[in-house]
Here is the input.
Amino acid sequence: MHYTNTDLLRIEGATKIFQLKPMLGPAREVVALNNVTLRIGTGKALAVVGESGSGKSTLGRAVARLFSLSSGSIAFKGQDIAHMRSRAERLDYLRSVQMVFQDPFSALNPAHTIQHHLERPLMLHQGLRGVSLAAAVREVLADVELDPELTLGKFPHELSGGQRQRVNLARALAVGAELIVADEPTSMLDVSIRRAVLELMRRMKETRAITFLYITHDIATAQFIADEIAIMYAGQIVEWGPPDRVIANPQHPYTRLLLSAVPDPSVRLDGMSARSFAREAQAVRALARTATAETLEVQPGHFVRKFAAMADAAR
Amino acid sequence: MTPSSEPALVDVRGLKVDFLTARGLFTAAKGVDFSIGRGEVLGLAGESGSGKSTIALALMRLHRPPAIISEGSIVIDGEDVLAMGPERLRRWRWSSVSMVFQSAMNSLNPVLTIFEQFRDVIVRHTGATRAEARQKASELLAMIGIPASRLDDYPHQLSGGMRQRVVLAIALALEPKLIIMDEPTTALDVVVQREILQEIIELKRQFGFSILFITHDLALMGQFADRIAIMLEGQLVEVAPAAQLIAHPHHDYTRRLWSSMPLLTRG
Here is the structure.
């Protein structure tokens, strides 16, 4: 990836190893992130796409500073987030980077109104009071296309899933977020409102220059919002580049498998041999685990990590 | 699909389900008619709160108060479901119609081994011995591609996809004629989802059961269902063969559903 001064976030060789010490049986290690290097430019959206257990959520959590890395670094505006010494620096980072989670139900306090949820960050982080506070609350609600008159007095359970996710985005705006780490923000929403929430995120990106790290298993939504897409498997980024190039010309077998599994209404499943897909999936998973440290630039900006069969072919 | 001479497996006429709430009567299903042929996959699509799951539960009479079936008839395999007594209902459920619930992988009991969960179904309904139940459970597991050695594992030792397959195998244990699947793959990633769907198709080929398949993913449904029914606010607004519903949706709401989901555009 190109190294430029406009990168808001730079992840350099990030590795995270979890030590599992079960009550019974031997301790073991799980490599959740394996030498991940990524960059996101200001006002851009990077989508990290992978299956459950691929390490994509671990990456988002490391960026939100919910735990420290085993090795490697994450730099925000050029500063390593692990080496923020002063409290002011740390608070500033936590304010600039906000998370939006998959479950819009559990992310809001059921005992408080939407007004409370939005006033608190504005009071604590922006120091607003009185008339200016009331005006700011209305403004952030308007930004996420919710009607303040109808929404402010309501409790979370009185809103739909899509409305709640909008409130979560509004809360991130109220804090003054520059980077939003959105971990599967639409996967618990109805298909019929998914697109509307993605469109809102896209508008936040385009009109307010909010940067997104969008984590998903749905490559179709990734294509919808992202400027750059990174396919993750077993803790490694196996292929990355502009979404249209990666989707039109996938190089890594795992990317191809992922694309072939995306539901396509024009392809009927009942004519296919039942076990062949499962066999192929097994073979690809085994192959993808053999990924090496070498990468190849397929076309400008589109990279693929070499895997065992590729190295054999080159030999 | 059903030849016209043979009666449909499932015939639902004028089904109305009411909820008695503090604010008065809420009608979740407003006179729904549909049928499912033998060996047919009927897809039921609609947004949350449209009444899809209410219909699924009503088919097995699993709806609980405050929900009541106030009007209509449900006939499955020639038998009037609404007229069954409690004992008949208990025997009939699972042996004739079984169900894979939404987030099915969490519907396994975490403190019982996989075998115990099979045994519960098999012994209770067939009176088989423990050894016979074990034999049957191993066969069912083998069919969905899980080694019989996993029978003594607990649910948390299996991956999400494996748990989903186990739930499917338990639904198949008594070789029912209809399996209701309520969002069976929503919590899984696309690769695992596809593996499970192909598995279901293969099993259907072997056993010939019918499926009521509930999801809000229209694209997935188009790949899998023979006919698709679109539900809006307790009513079926459009029922059509899958290919027709994809190519020429008639109802405005169906068109809106299609345009509301981001589809992958390939190259």
In short: The CA atoms of residues 190 and 196 of chain B lie 10 Å apart. The longest strand of chain B covers residues 24-36. Residues 10-106+176-259 of chain B form a domain with the Rossmann fold fold (CATH 3.40.50.300). Chain B is about 35% helix and 25% strand.
